């Protein structure tokens, strides 16, 4: 939480400094018991000690980046709210180094309770977001065409938020014929349903152009051969079709078998996410092109009567690399309610520049009383949707017992916490006493703070304890052991010794937690080692060997038996293996359905 959110002036009166040498961990001289209390107790503690800790004698730092309840995340099974996702789910992320997207496992979902807050709204054509001021964004800088990071509060006129990125995890070889892909698109476009099993009817006008009957007629010829009457096909179960003249032009009647082939890929006329993920880039373009020809203006927008069907088209367009938006249109004089999907001309938006050009685009703080949440992914990014607008945004970070980091003096200020290091090191307190619990959220918050200082502000990644500077018990034996064993220098999301359901798993175990472990191993490149059973929820020899090899890939000795149990150290190495493998351009495991 920033100084402003705490009700203080945005800038500390402490003298200017440029600490570059690392981060120093501290604790309180007495037990506080904050882990057993609400977060409000942490705020009271911090404010009551402000005079001592942020005056002329002390100082610490903080961040906390989150989005509102209405912001969704794109998973491999479509858009989901924060209440519908969990660790191990597969989500679309942005590799900010290359500007491409890819599927990665969700490492954590962090949700913070409802309470009065000040968030920053950015709202206008092409964009809607409501975030904390410190929420991070991967941006492109227009002036230098560089990729950088910014916060909601620090976004500048030249900062572009990405709305789309080509996906690197798409199949290279087609699983389905182009004709089947195209026919699924025509099937999707037909809103006049017929009972399952009775055969489908597709209607097209006799007109020139890509949306006319001639194109659909050709696809049916390619898939099922020439048209025939029902009686000609009664001897076998081969899919077939026939054509009749109707009020709206040509009517193409598909046999029950032909309809079943389509419904296998598009139940209820809505293509499944698994089917769409299995298409090559060229086939995704084919699918979206046919959909636009059949139900849209042929170029950039279309409407459909059901949200599920519109979202399927949007999903395909996103994987093809298009910037999209989804809007609900109320019923008109001759039409019912519609869902309109638009393919946008630009793949980026500059909120600050847009707000400077027109009052129709707003960038302003506002009060908010709901929950805020943030996901953790290996890339530190994710694809978000809010009010129909879609964009890539940054990982959200969390330092009290509940995972908040509370700002003291802030950036570029002389510290007053460790004599001999106040101008060279930043400082952070755990707000714990000698016997207090150090929670997993606190550990991860320190890690997030360290990563933020390293990545965004060029600070050394080294973490020290107060006792490294003077003779003192601070930061306590428990915290200092974590300093010495490198716990605080792990990336956010790695094992914190808390209640991670994967920690403690061993050979012989089974269940959903084992499935999550096996999915992570698959993302770490160990699909072969898992063997023929793959992700089956049973911790057997294949899972043990896959874990051992994943640990070996990041430098572990990987002796026999190193995969038989998921220890905290093994978990941290597995997460590192996932991140390393997914950063390789040739990695395709994430695309497997």
Keyphrases for this structure?
Lysozyme-like, globular, Endonuclease - Pi-scei, Chain A, domain 1, disordered C terminus, alpha+beta, 593 residues, four-stranded antiparallel β-sheet
Write the layout of secondary structure elements.
Elements: E1 23-26, H1 39-48, H2 50-53, E2 67-68, E3 72-75, E4 78-80, E5 90-95, E6 100-105, E7 108-112, E8 117-124, E9 127-131, E10 136-141, E11 146-151, E12 159-162, H3 178-189, E13 201-204, H4 213-224, E14 241-246, E15 249-254, H5 256-265, H6 273-277, H7 281-295, E16 301-304, H8 307-319, E17 324-329, E18 338-343, E19 348-349, H9 351-357, E20 362-368, E21 372-376, E22 381-386, E23 389-394, E24 426-429, H10 440-457, E25 463-465, H11 477-484, H12 512-523, H13 527-530, H14 541-552, H15 568-582
Parallel strand pairs: 1-24, 1-25
Antiparallel strand pairs: 2-21, 3-4, 3-22, 5-6, 7-21, 8-9, 8-20, 10-11, 10-12, 12-19, 13-15, 14-15, 16-18, 17-18, 22-23
Helix pairs in contact: 3-4, 3-7, 7-8, 12-15
Helix content: 25-40%
Shape: globular
Please give the CATH architecture of the largest domain. Roll
In order across it, which strands form the biggest sheet? 4-3-22-23
Structural class: alpha+beta
What is the fourth-level CATH superfamily of the largest domain? Homing endonucleases
DSSP E strands, number: 25
GO biological process, one term: intein-mediated protein splicing
InterPro entries: Amidase/PGRP_sf, Amidase_domain, Hint_dom_N, Hint_dom_sf, Intein_N, PGBD-like_sf, PGBDSf, PGRP
Domain Hint: 64-165
Pfam family, one: Amidase_2
